[in-house]
C-alpha cells in the first residue's frame, strides 16, 4: 500500500502507472502461489506437510 503512495507523491505517477504498479506487486504471489497450491493439492496427504 505504501508503494503506490510513494509513486504518486515522489514520482508524480499517473493513475495508469499506479494501477500497473499495484498489479505488479500482486503478480509474484499469483505466479508462485497458485501453481504451488495446485502442486500441493495433487500430492498424497501422507507426503505433504499439512494433513486434512
Could you please describe the fold and organization of this structure?
With 52 residues, the chain is mostly helical. It has one domain. Helices cover 73% and strands 0% of the residues. The protein has helices spanning 2-11, 15-42. The chain is rod-shaped. The model has no long low-confidence stretch (mean pLDDT 80).
The structural domain count equals: 1
* Tally of strands: 0
Give the fraction of residues assigned to helices.
over 70%
Q: How many DSSP H or I helices? A: 2
Mean pLDDT, all residues: 80
Largest sheet: none
Please trace the helix and strand order, writing H or E for each element: HH
Principal-axes shape call: rod-shaped
Itemize the secondary structure elements and their pairings.
Blueprint: H1 2-11, H2 15-42
Helix pairs in contact: 1-2
List its salient traits.
rod-shaped; mainly alpha; 2 helices; 52 residues; single chain
Q: What would you say about this model in short?
A:
The chain is mostly helical.
Amino acid at each position: 500500500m505504501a508503494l503506490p503512495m510513494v509513486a504518486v507523491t515522489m514520482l508524480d505517477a499517473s493513475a495508469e502507472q499506479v494501477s500497473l504498479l499495484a498489479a505488479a506487486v500482486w503478480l509474484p504471489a499469483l505466479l508462485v502461489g497458485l501453481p504451488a497450491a495446485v502442486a500441493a493439492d495433487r500430492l498424497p496427504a501422507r507426503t505433504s506437510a499439512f494433513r486434512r
